[in-house]
Amino acid sequence: MPAERWPARQLRRREFTHSRTAPPTTINPNTTDKRRVLIQTIESPVVSCLNFLPCFQMGAAGVESLAGVRKLNVNVSRRRFIKGVITSSAAAATSSAWYSASAKQRPGGVVERLITLNVNGRKRPVDVLPQETLAYTLRYKLGLTGTKLGCNRGECGACTVLVDDVSHYSCSMLTHSVRGRTVATVEGLQDPSGALHPVQQAFIDELAPQCGYCTPGQLMATVALLKDNPKPTREEARQALSGNLCRCGAYDHYLNAVMRASGQATEVEQNA
Questions:
Q1: How far apart are the C-alpha atoms of 264 and 250, rounded to whole Å?
Q2: What are φ and ψ of residue 19, in 5° steps?
Q3: 8: pLDDT strictly greater than 60
Q4: C-beta of residue 154 within 8 angstroms of C-beta of residue 171
C-alpha cells in the first residue's frame, strides 16, 4: 500500500516503532514524498507524537522546521548548559559588585539608602527609600509615633516637627532632605531627668488638649515660636499656630497655654 494512502494511525504506529538509533537521513527539500521523509527523519517517539500532525499538515515547511529542532537538540548538551549558567552567574556577580562600590564611584542619580539622621540629639542610622517622607521614617522606621499623620498632605499640622529649630510639616518633606540637619520631635521635649518642657507643662495647666491628636503638632509649633519670639503677643501666637488645625475647637486653650509658657498673663488673668 503506498505511503500516501496510509491512515494517520498507521503512520503514528510506524513512527513509534522506528528505531531511535537509526542514522539521520538527509532531507531534500525538493522531494515530492514529504510524509515518507518525515517518517525517516524523526528519531524520538516523544517528538514525533507532539509534532507529527502539525508538520504533516504544513508539508515541506513542517519537515524543514522539525529538522531544525532536531539539529538544535543535538548541539545543546548538558556541559554547554552548565557552562552557560556559570557564565551568567559570574556576570551577575560582577554587576552587583560594581553597584556596591562607594558613593564616589557610583553614577549620578543613585541615592544611598542607608543614612544617618540626627533626631532628638541622637545619631540614628536608618534605611530610607528615595521617595520616603520624614513622617513615615519617624513613625515606622524609628518608632517615634508622637508625630501624627492626619491629612498627609501638609494641611492639618499634626505631623509638625522642628528641623534646625524651624517648624516643618514632616509629611511633606523627604527624609533625604534632612541629612546633616537636626530634627526634633515631641519625644525630645522632655528633659532626660523626666521633667516636662515648660510648654508641655503650660498645656497641662491650661487644659489645652481635648482629644489630643493635634497636640504634638501644637506643641512643636509653640516651641518653634518661642525660640524665635520669646514674648509673642496673643495675635502673634494666633498667627504662628494658624497652620495647626484642632478639630475639637480648643484654639483659645492653646493660645492661653502659649501665653503661660511665655511667662505672660493669660486671657483669663487679664480679665480678672
A1: 19
A2: -70, 135
A3: no
A4: yes
The answer on pLDDT for 53 being more than 60 is: no
Give the three-class secondary structure for 160. Answer: strand
Kindly state whether residues 145 and 204 are assigned to the same domain. no
Report the C-alpha dihedral over residues 190, 191, 195, 196, rounded to 10 degrees.
-30
Give the model's pLDDT for residue 49.
41
More confident residue, 83 or 214: 214
- Euclidean distance between CA atoms 144 and 134, whole angstroms: 11
**Sheet of 122-127, strand order:** 122-127, 114-119, 182-184, 160-163, 166-169
From 75, 101, 127, give the residue that closes a domain: 75
Angle between helices 198-205 and 215-228 (to 10 degrees): 120
* Domain with 166 in it: 114-186
pTM for the model stands at 0.59
Q: Supply the CATH number for residue 250's domain.
A: 1.10.150.120
Domains held by the chain: number:
3
Q: Residue 269 burial by CB count (10 A; 0-12/13-18/19+): exposed, middle or buried?
A: exposed
What is the distance between the alpha carbons of residues 216 and 227, in angstroms, rounded to a whole number? Answer: 17
Question: Where among 45, 75, 105 does a domain terminate?
Answer: 75
